[in-house]
Design goal:
about 210 residues, FAD/NAD(P)-binding domain, Enolase-like, domain 1, 2 domains, five-stranded antiparallel beta sheet, 5 helices, about 20% helix, about 15% strand, elongated
């Protein structure tokens, strides 16, 4: 049984219409600009209520802190809603940071991207004899910006821990060259990102025969 529980934006009966704040009539969420400002200049919104933004508590906390610092502390820092590490805690975890491949294509154009990917087999799976080529890793690079990594995805054990570490590197401008120059810790799942050499466009086989 799969239960997917979403969140409703309860904005229709709190008086927003009285002061003229616009909402998305389809989902009740509030459109804002890149500074969390609504169409009414003195009204701001943060968190899960934002239209088109991530419904994650740490994102809301970060956005709230940065908003307070801009309004009262003289800061100009804005919340980064793209490079957010995220994990789905299913039995085989999925983690991501940055752009999904489809959105990256929309944003940068397919011709400007290089996608590296591979299947992999965690060493810890060899003793119990679990299926090979179940885990997957992928990075999306912007060829027009020194092959900067704009998307990272992993399906495998401890994906959340792996993604959290690489998220900091992505925020620092991680490139494919820097990944290639990084020495991997063997045997870990994360080391797969330091050895990727097969591009999606090549059509080469990405199946693995061992850890």
């Amino acid at each position: 049984v799969l239960i997917a529980i979403g969140r409703d934006a309860c904005t229709r009966n709190i008086g927003l219409q009285t002061i003229g704040v616009e909402i998305n009539e389809k989902n009740g969420k509030v459109p804002v600009n890149d500074e969390e400002q609504t169409n009414v200049p003195y009204v701001y919104a943060i968190g899960d209520i934002l239209d088109g933004k991530l419904e994650l508590t740490p994102v809301a906390i970060q956005a709230g802190r940065l908003l307070a610092q801009r309004l009262y502390g003289g800061s100009s820092r804005k919340c980064d809603y793209i490079n957010v590490p995220t994990t789905v805690f299913t039995p085989l975890e999925y983690g991501s940071c940055g752009y999904p491949e489809e959105k990256a294509i929309d944003e940068y154009g397919k011709q400007n991207l290089e996608v590296y990917h591979t299947l992999f087999w965690p060493l810890e799976w060899t003793v119990p004899g679990r299926d090979n080529n179940t885990c997957y890793a992928k990075i999306i690079c912007n060829k027009q910006d020194n092959n900067r990594v704009i998307g990272l995805h992993i399906l495998g054990p401890n994906a959340g821990e792996v993604t959290q570490g690489f998220a900091a590197a992505i925020k620092c401008g991680l490139t494919k060259e820097l990944l290639d120059e990084t020495i991997g810790i063997h045997p870990t799942c994360a080391e797969v990102f330091t050895t990727m050499d097969i591009t999606k466009s090549s059509g080469q086989d990405i199946t693995q025969k061992g850890c």
